[in-house]
């Protein structure tokens, strides 16, 4: 998908928002878990410290002793990560078995009997430990001060936080993937009405319908109503233009008939040069009037509805059958291929006028062969011959608006000029190139088709319906 795609932008924006939200949430959860671990650890140390202080006694000689050590068995396992230590101001030192031969390097401090001080120290083997300590007076008479401390190895807590963060990252990654897929599905569902509108516009362009479908969500309904109103206004304008052009063209019929009669009388009077000049002017004006009448009729049919589609193969058969009986095509053989059932979104009369002119031109200039070929994907129809072709210098002039390939030759009298007018009215275009037969190849295709005129693969040609009508 291109960055200009609305779907890509919405999915990307939604996914980025999800990733940011999940990242912030994950970071916050890790911080909260870390704080929870710290609070739990502090509470456990406080419980162990109370148990240790409750088990302290003085022997008859006034020395401190632990009559009831804390119940946690880790205090008896060397280097287990949970330690206690007791000292007094006379230099006596008691330690848990878990400390083995290590001593907790407590800082210089004098915690009170109701105060619990916490420190982070280097414990056994250099491990970081969290220490909670309190100070009490065991013998008020002698002012014997005792300092009790309980320590917990922080490596275990850090490992727990790290494991939680890892597990949380995996869970959030899975959740992010699921939410990203959900976002993509949600965007696709949200943009589905636009796809319906696109298909509706394509059907209007192809003549299958007159208006966009109105069964759309409320948010899109105003756009559909405006487009349908615009189509109605366009149709009314086309109808008015058609009527004006037809009225104007018919208005010239009577004066042209009078000019023709005057030319005949002049010829009877022997004024042949003047009669010929009047006839030439009348013929030129008559051709222009015929062209305008044809265009007026055409404007009324373009985008006329589903009935405007014409099946191509029967029409080509009829045209080739008719053309094959004319003197201009007596020396020409026709062949080609048209997919069975292929339909073009044109009125039958207009399509016959286009293909008839192209086939007639090709037959007039061909040496012996004229070929017509059609393709559905990409959509195009091409007519080629084995004649001299069209010089490159003439192609640009022929394709200019109003340009003509042959203004004087036989045929319908409208030539490529009216062919281009018909094609432009239907949103098609005409291309002129060099045929594989050596002559000209004229291709007609929708204006949005990217590769009109490319020959189909041989396998595709075999699957198409062969046309061998006249020869």
UniProtKB/TrEMBL annotation:
Cited SUPFAM superfamilies: ATPase domain of HSP90 chaperone/DNA topoisomerase II/histidine kinase, Homodimeric domain of signal transducing histidine kinase
Record localization: Membrane
GO terms assigned for molecular function: kinase activity
Annotated protein name in UniProt: histidine kinase
Assigned keywords, A-Z: Kinase, Membrane, Phosphoprotein, Transferase, Transmembrane, Transmembrane helix, Two-component regulatory system
Organism this protein belongs to: Bradyrhizobium denitrificans
Main location: membrane
Domain HAMP stretches: 188-239
Disordered, as annotated region: 451-471
Reaction it catalyzes: ATP + protein L-histidine = ADP + protein N-phospho-L-histidine
Documented EC number(s): 2.7.13.3
InterPro entries linked to this entry: HAMP_dom, HATPase_C_sf, HATPase_dom, His_kinase_dom, HisK_dim/P_sf, Sig_transdc_His_kin-like_C, TCS_sensor_his_kinase
Pfam families (alphabetical): HATPase_c
UniProt cross-references to SMART domains, sorted A to Z: HATPase_c
Histidine kinase domain mapped to chain residues: 247-450
Spans through the membrane: 12-33, 168-189
């Amino acid at each position: 998908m291109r960055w200009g795609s609305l779907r890509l932008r919405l999915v990307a924006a939604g996914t980025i928002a999800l990733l940011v939200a999940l990242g912030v949430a994950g970071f916050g959860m890790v911080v909260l878990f870390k704080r929870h671990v710290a609070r739990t650890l502090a509470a456990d140390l406080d419980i162990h410290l109370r148990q240790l202080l409750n088990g302290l006694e003085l022997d008859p000689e006034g020395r401190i002793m632990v009559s009831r050590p804390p119940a946690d068995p880790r205090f008896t396992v060397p280097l287990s990560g949970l330690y206690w230590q007791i000292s007094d101001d006379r230099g006596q030192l008691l330690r848990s078995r878990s400390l083995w031969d290590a001593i907790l390097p407590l800082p210089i401090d004098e915690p009170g009997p109701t105060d619990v001080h916490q420190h982070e120290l280097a414990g056994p083997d250099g491990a970081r430990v969290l220490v909670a300590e309190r100070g009490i007076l065991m013998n008020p008479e002698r002012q014997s001060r005792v300092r009790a401390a309980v320590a917990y190895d922080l490596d275990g807590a850090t490992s727990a936080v790290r494991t939680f963060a890892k597990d949380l990252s995996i869970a959030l990654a899975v959740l992010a993937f699921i939410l990203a897929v959900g976002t993509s599905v949600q965007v696709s569902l949200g943009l589905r009405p636009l796809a319906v509108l696109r298909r509706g516009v394509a059907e209007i362009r192809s003549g299958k319908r007159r208006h966009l479908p109105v069964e759309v969500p409320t948010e899109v309904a105003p756009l559909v109503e405006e487009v349908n109103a615009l189509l109605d206004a366009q149709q009314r304008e086309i109808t008015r233009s058609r009527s004006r052009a037809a009225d104007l063209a018919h208005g010239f019929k009577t004066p042209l008939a009078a000019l023709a009669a005057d030319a005949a009388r002049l010829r009877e009077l022997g004024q042949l040069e003047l009669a010929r000049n009047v006839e030439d002017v009348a013929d030129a004006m008559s051709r222009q009037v015929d062209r305008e009448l044809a265009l007026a009729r055409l404007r009324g049919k373009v985008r006329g509805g589903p009935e405007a589609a014409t099946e191509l193969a029967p029409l080509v058969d009829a045209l080739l059958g008719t053309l094959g009986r004319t003197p201009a095509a007596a020396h020409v053989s026709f062949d080609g291929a048209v997919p069975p059932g292929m339909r073009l979104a044109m009125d039958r009369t207009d399509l016959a006028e286009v293909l008839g002119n192209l086939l007639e031109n090709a037959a007039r200039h061909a040496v012996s062969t004229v070929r017509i070929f059609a393709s559905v994907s990409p959509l195009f129809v091409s007519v080629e011959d084995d004649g001299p072709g069209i010089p490159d210098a003439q192609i640009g002039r022929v394709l200019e608006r109003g340009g003509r390939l042959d203004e004087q030759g036989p045929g319908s009298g409208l030539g490529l000029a009216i062919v281009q007018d018909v094609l432009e009215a239907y949103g098609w275009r005409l291309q002129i190139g060099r045929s594989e037969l050596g002559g000209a190849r004229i291709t007609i295709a929708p204006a949005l088709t990217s590769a009109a005129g490319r020959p189909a693969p041989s396998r595709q040609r075999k699957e198409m319906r062969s046309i061998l009508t006249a020869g």
